[in-house]
Write a structure and sequence with these properties.
Blueprint lengths: L2 H20 L4 E6 L4 E7 L4 E7 L3 H4 L8 H17 L6 E3 L8 H11 L5
Parallel strand pairs: 1-4
Antiparallel strand pairs: 1-2, 2-3
């Protein structure tokens, strides 16, 4: 089994556990690369994205030194919390995907909690 397959299996395992406890709550899905971080609030029942944010957005790109550090992840966490609350979402289920809850993923989650999302 290659590394891509193990990453996909890990993500599927996490999402399977999330769907057991999610109920009707939307999912806060995180994707990170070596240079950027992306986050979406997804309603799996309808198959729609409710809110999204990334470090590639023009208004953030100028204020961030890089999109690949914990400060950028925290800024994205606050932004997604603001956009989700504007869309009427207060409770979500955190989907870390194949990534461990550490570093940028943890910074994003904590900033989203500070911004008003509960999970």
């Amino acid at each position: 089994m290659g590394s891509k397959e193990s990453t996909q299996r890990r993500a599927q395992r996490v999402r399977r556990q999330i769907k057991k406890v999610a109920g009707e709550r939307p999912r806060l899905s995180v994707h990170r690369t070596s240079k950027n971080i992306y986050v979406q609030v997804i309603d799996d029942a309808k198959g729609h994205t409710i809110a999204a944010a990334s470090t590639l957005e023009k208004d953030l790109k100028g204020s961030l030194k890089t999109g690949a550090d914990t400060a950028a992840a925290a800024a994205i966490g606050k932004l997604i919390a603001e956009r989700a609350s504007k869309a009427g979402v207060k409770e979500v289920v955190f989907d870390r995907g194949p990534y461990i809850y550490h570093g940028r993923v943890k910074a994003l989650a904590e900033a989203a909690r500070e911004g008003g999302l509960s999970f």
